[in-house]
């Protein structure tokens, strides 16, 4: 009798353990899948408007809630490396050191290109010259104040645009005299609209999809055409010029997924790179990674 009771007790213990384990797995599956659940998304603030549109459509189609956290590139990467199971939108692939960090954590990031963006240069409407040469910008960044540029205005000292121009100029840091930085792209637009002689550096997404706060300011700025280094022609940051590869300040956009399982990160990345996501990119004025096809209905006769 004692042996029977012992056997029943052991059997009951394992049965409860299996039941609880199954319930926990079911609960986890219930919470998140590729098209269901909640997740945080770190986004480079220079492309925030585009991602707001993408998230709005994704959430309307699926039982998902994506919380957007817009940050400067440096802040974004720091947070991303602390929370290594997250999702991030970057204007560049992971660096070699960042990739090694994830490898050491036994995490294999999945990186998907979904668009090509442009960094726009803007000036006050009072400045009649709408052309600017990158050789002058680079010279100014290196400390040559004899160029026609009076000042460069960046969105944030830690932003992806600052990092882009530091790399372009081949310097370790930007010369501080005549260079200004704020906390957002919106502040750059407002400052340039109210101060002539300044050149603003901004993600073109903010000009194509402006917020209510800056919409009225856009009437008082010029979007400049840019001459690339060692080039003769000037090109505006248009979708067509991005497609032809002629605009010199173009950059690719990536979603980096480090969740390590079939969660919303995988689902949202597929959405961005899929038909609907690419059409949203096309409508935004940026260049999709894959141009969506056009469906043409041909009727045999007219009614």
Low-pLDDT runs of 5+ residues are 2-29
Distance linking N and C termini: 89 Å
Shape: globular
Approximate helicity band: 40-55%
Which percent range describes the beta-strand content? 15-25%
Mean pLDDT: 86
Number of helical elements: 12
Name the structural class: alpha/beta
Q: Which sheet architecture does the biggest sheet show? A: 10 strands, mixed
E-strand count:
13
Rg: 25 Å
Run of helices and strands:
HEHEHEHEEHEHEHEHHEEEHEHHE
Short description:
By secondary structure, the chain is an alpha/beta fold. The chain has helices at residues 2-31, 48-61, 73-82, 96-104, 134-141, 160-169, 185-194, 205-208, 212-215, 239-244, 264-273, 275-284, and strands at 36-44, 63-71, 87-90, 110-124, 131-133, 151-154, 179-181, 198-203, 221-223, 225-227, 234-235, 250-257, 287-288. It contains twelve helices and 13 strands.
């Amino acid at each position: 009798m004692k042996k029977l009771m012992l056997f029943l007790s052991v059997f009951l213990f394992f049965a409860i353990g299996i039941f609880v384990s199954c319930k926990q797995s079911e609960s986890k599956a219930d919470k998140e899948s590729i098209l269901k659940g909640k997740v945080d998304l770190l986004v480079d603030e220079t492309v925030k408007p585009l991602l707001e549109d993408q998230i709005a459509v994704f959430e309307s189609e699926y039982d998902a809630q994506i919380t957007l956290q817009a940050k400067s590139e440096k802040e974004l990467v720091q947070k991303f490396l602390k929370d290594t199971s997250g999702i991030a939108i970057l204007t560049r692939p992971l660096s070699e050191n960042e990739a090694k960090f994830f490898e050491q954590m036994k995490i294999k990031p999945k990186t998907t290109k979904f668009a090509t963006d442009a960094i726009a240069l803007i000036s006050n409407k009072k400045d009649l010259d709408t052309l600017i040469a990158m050789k002058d910008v680079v010279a100014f960044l290196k400390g040559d104040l004899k160029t026609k540029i009076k000042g460069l205005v960046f969105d944030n000292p830690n932003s992806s645009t600052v990092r882009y121009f530091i790399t372009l100029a081949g310097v370790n840091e930007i010369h501080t005299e005549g260079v200004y930085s704020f906390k957002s792209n919106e502040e750059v637009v407002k400052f340039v609209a109210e101060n002539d002689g300044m050149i603003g550096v901004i993600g073109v997404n903010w000009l194509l999809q402006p917020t209510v706060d800056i919409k009225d300011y856009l009437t008082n700025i010029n979007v400049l055409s840019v001459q690339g280094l060692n080039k003769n022609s000037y090109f505006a940051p248009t979708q067509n010029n991005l497609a032809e590869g002629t605009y010199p300040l173009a950059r690719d956009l990536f979603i980096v997924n480090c969740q390590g399982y079939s969660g919303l990160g995988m689902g949202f990345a597929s959405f961005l790179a899929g038909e609907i996501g690419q059409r949203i990119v096309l409508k935004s004025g940026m260049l999709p990674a894959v141009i969506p096809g056009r469906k043409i209905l041909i009727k045999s006769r007219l009614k």
